[in-house]
């Protein structure tokens, strides 16, 4: 059954909105992955790779909130990092559950305000920052267990400078 629908192409504001939302969601998922890997290593520091991979597979699908709850219960992170994670969770929840609330008329009209773009971009920026904090924390953890993390640390610093690394 055909409907009489007139398709209107997205305007530049709508395209920007979709791009900013996509970037923020992707970077948030990267935080979730970093957190899952970090929790796995911190909770299983002496396990074999196979057993740690099994633990990761079982726990990798946790939401950000659930992963943070585990981290709190197990006291896996220092207080400043824990505070950053909790604050980021609030931003992520806004992005995923409430980005439209209060902006319905603007969305329908295709008039997305710059403040909304800025708020979404702030979530992306915070996700990138949180991911780095988790990575540095994990490097410190591994170093404390006697692992040489100098190469990993050097690669992370290159990545922060925007240098792409290919293996």
Would you mind describing this structure in some detail?
The protein has one domain. It contains 7 helices and no strands. It is elongated, with a radius of gyration of 20 Å. The model has no long low-confidence stretch (mean pLDDT 90). The N and C termini lie far apart (51 Å).
Question: What is the compact description of this entry?
Answer:
The protein has 167 residues and is mainly α.
Task: Summarize this structure as a short list of keywords or feature phrases.
mainly alpha
> In percent, how helical is the residue content?
over 70%
Structural class given helices, strands, pairing? Answer: mainly alpha
Radius of gyration from the alpha-carbon trace, in angstroms: 20 Å
Overall mean pLDDT score? 90
Number of helices: 7
Sheet of most strands: none
- What is the CA–CA distance across the termini? 51 Å
Determine the strand fraction and express it as a percent band.
under 5%
Catalogue the unreliable spans: none
Summed up, the domain count is 1
The outline comes out as elongated
Please count the beta strands (DSSP E, at least 2 residues each): 0
Sequence of secondary-structure elements: HHHHHHH
